[in-house]
């Protein structure tokens, strides 16, 4: 085991781009060293790591893995500890998201949606628990407001995020008082590249009291707050949705 690194260390899954990359930048700016997990976005993750290294040498590590690989969670935690000697925060951000209309669903789709949204987050948390206990650390899971509501034609995604929400509460109970476990449930933040047509996006925003989509920074700020500034908060899922879940 290398000497214990002087900055707290956060492992963020799916950190190569989009919301995960902004979470990594935000935690890094707040003084964390970051482990940038990626699968296909290796080049983006390497570019982000280079940017962070210019600000603080030795403060980042890129690890590549498909979270459907059953060995991936243990590998990611072991590689983090081998490099930095500590782990203070786990952010389960990586997520598959695609429609699965009833009547068309395959077991492969089930496995893909559950692997990144539920299975890997649990086994990452399990592998990380001894180090997180030693650090009195915390976990934040990126859930979704659709863990509790139905999203048309996305039953498996909703079910997988519901499992992640249940895991947030179950592990908060089981890992207290050493490790806090919370979730952030974004509303509309970044549309998937093959996502909703413009008119549907505008209709969704019209139903959002804050009258805008959230930014990745809105989500990242909530993650940082739950990790660093909320020592008496555990088992909670914070909606960062511009008030969208207030309306029926
Ligand atoms: N964007 C939104 O408006 C919104 C709304 C509600 C909830 N959320 C939640 O917030 C989080 C971030 O959202 P996002 O839109 O930024 O996510 P995203 O772009 O859809 O996905 C993030 C990353 O997940 C990784 N990933 C997917 N399957 C994987 C697998 N099997 N193994 C390893 N990595 C895998 C991908 O990494 P690679 O590119 O490296 O392959 C991808 O870049 C997600 O958990 C999402 O469900 C987002």
Could you explain how this protein is built, in words?
The protein is of the alpha/beta class. The protein has one domain: NAD(P)-binding Rossmann-like Domain (Rossmann fold). The chain contains 7 helices and 7 strands; from the N terminus they run βαβαβαβαβαβααβ. The chain has helices spanning 18-29, 42-55, 72-84, 107-135, 155-175, 198-206, 216-228, and strands at residues 9-12, 33-38, 60-64, 89-92, 138-142, 180-186, 237-240. It has a 7-stranded parallel beta sheet, with helices on both faces. It is globular, with a radius of gyration of 17 Å. The mean pLDDT is 96. Bound molecules: NADP nicotinamide-adenine-dinucleotide phosphate. Residues 14, 16-20, 38-41, 66-68, 93-97, 115-116, 142, 144, 186, 188-190 line the site of NADP nicotinamide-adenine-dinucleotide phosphate (NAP). The site of NADP nicotinamide-adenine-dinucleotide phosphate has 26 residues, from helix 1 and helix 4.
């Amino acid at each position: 085991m290398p000497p214990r690194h002087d900055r707290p260390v956060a492992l963020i899954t799916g950190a190569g781009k989009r919301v995960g990359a902004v979470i990594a930048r935000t935690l890094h700016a707040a003084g964390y060293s970051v482990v940038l997990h990626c699968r296909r976005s290796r080049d983006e993750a390497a570019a982000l790591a280079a940017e962070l290294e210019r600000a603080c040498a030795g403060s980042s590590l890129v690890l590549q893995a498909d979270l459907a690989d059953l060995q991936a969670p243990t590998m990611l935690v072991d590689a983090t500890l081998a490099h930095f000697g500590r782990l203070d925060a786990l952010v389960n951000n990586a997520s598959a998201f695609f429609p699965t209309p009833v009547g068309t669903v395959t077991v492969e789709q089930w496995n893909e949606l559950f692997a990144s949204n539920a299975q890997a987050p649990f086994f990452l948390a399990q592998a990380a628990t001894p180090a997180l206990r030693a650090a009195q650390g915390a976990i934040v899971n990126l859930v979704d407001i659709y863990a509790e509501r139905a999203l048309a034609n996305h039953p498996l995604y909703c079910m997988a995020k519901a499992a992640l929400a249940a895991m947030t509460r179950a592990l908060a109970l089981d890992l207290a008082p050493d490790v806090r476990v919370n979730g952030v449930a974004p509303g509309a933040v970044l549309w998937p590249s093959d996502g909703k047509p413009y008119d549907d996006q505008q209709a969704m925003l019209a139903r959002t009291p804050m009258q805008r989509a959230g930014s990745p920074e809105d989500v990242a700020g909530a993650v940082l707050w739950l990790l660093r500034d909320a020592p008496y908060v555990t088992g909670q899922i914070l909606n960062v949705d511009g008030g969208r879940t207030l309306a029926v």
